[in-house]
């Protein structure tokens, strides 16, 4: 791989295409030969009523939450691209989403925002996600907030450390959006 990345691009494409009822296929002639991706989306026929609506009115229609429940979510990740992409996907699913890019900012924001869910990267600068979880658990206003580790660290020892720090679950990047939506839907 010539460029480093998050490794979530194709996962995001697949999730978005599925949301629209489409499919993604990948083709390659082998290592070093490149890849080709085929995206198929269903053709939608607009009725007379919809076709007549202006773009302004159509864009005002809020997407329904995939889970059926709208959640207040705070994402804490120092990788701004990753945080913003996940935030957009969750917003598109109907959730209210805020983003913090480090632990100290999250500690200041969370008691005021009172998120139902926090998705926290473990590899944060200045204060790692484990320490952030411990500190958040000590804030009375966040007693009902569910904390989820969102990280590239996927070993069993990493998962155990997350649970010990107070996380409800340990999600490995790239996050499976179907699983994340299922988790959000199952929360009380």
Molecular structure report:
With 188 residues, the chain is α/β, with parallel strands linked by helices. It is 39% helix and 18% strand. It has helices spanning 9-19, 48-52, 55-59, 80-92, 103-113, 129-137, 156-165, 177-186, and strands spanning 23-27, 36-40, 72-76, 96-100, 117-120, 146-151, 169-172. A hairpin with an 8-residue loop joins β1 and β2. It is globular.
Q: What are the defining features of this structure?
A:
single chain, 188 residues, alpha/beta, Rossmann fold, 18% strand
Give a quick summary of the entry:
By secondary structure, the protein is an alpha/beta fold. The protein contains eight helices and seven strands; from the N terminus they run αββααβαβαβαβαβα. Strands 4-3-5-6-7 form a five-stranded parallel β-sheet, sandwiched between helices.
Write the layout of secondary structure elements.
Elements: H1 9-19, E1 23-27, E2 36-40, H2 48-52, H3 55-59, E3 72-76, H4 80-92, E4 96-100, H5 103-113, E5 117-120, H6 129-137, E6 146-151, H7 156-165, E7 169-172, H8 177-186
Parallel strand pairs: 3-4, 3-5, 5-6, 6-7
Antiparallel strand pairs: 1-2
The helix/strand order is: HEEHHEHEHEHEHEH
CATH topology of the largest domain: Rossmann fold
Radius of gyration (CA) equals 19 Å
Question: Which bin fits the share of residues in helices?
Answer: 25-40%
Name given to the CATH architecture of the largest domain: 3-Layer(aba) Sandwich
Average residue-wise pLDDT:
83
Q: Which CATH class of the largest domain applies here?
A: Alpha Beta
Number of strand elements: 7
């Amino acid at each position: 791989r010539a460029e480093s990345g998050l490794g979530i691009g194709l996962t995001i494409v697949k999730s978005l295409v599925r949301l629209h009822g489409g499919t993604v296929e990948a083709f390659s002639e082998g290592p070093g030969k490149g890849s080709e991706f085929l995206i198929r989306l269903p053709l939608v026929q607009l009725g007379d009523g919809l076709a007549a609506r202006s773009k302004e009115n159509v864009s005002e229609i809020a997407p329904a939450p995939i889970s059926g429940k709208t959640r207040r979510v705070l994402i804490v990740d120092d990788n701004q691209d990753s945080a913003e992409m996940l935030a957009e996907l969750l917003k598109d699913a109907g959730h209210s989403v805020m983003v913090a890019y480090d632990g100290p900012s999250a500690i200041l924001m969370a008691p005021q925002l009172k998120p139902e869910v926090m998705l926290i990267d473990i590899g944060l600068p200045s204060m790692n996600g484990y320490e952030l979880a411990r500190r958040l658990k000590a804030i009375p206003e966040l007693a009902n907030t569910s904390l989820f580790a969102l990280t590239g660290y996927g070993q069993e020892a990493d998962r155990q450390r997350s649970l010990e720090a107070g996380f409800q679950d340990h999600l490995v990047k790239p996050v499976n959006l179907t699983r994340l939506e299922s988790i959000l839907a199952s929360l009380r």
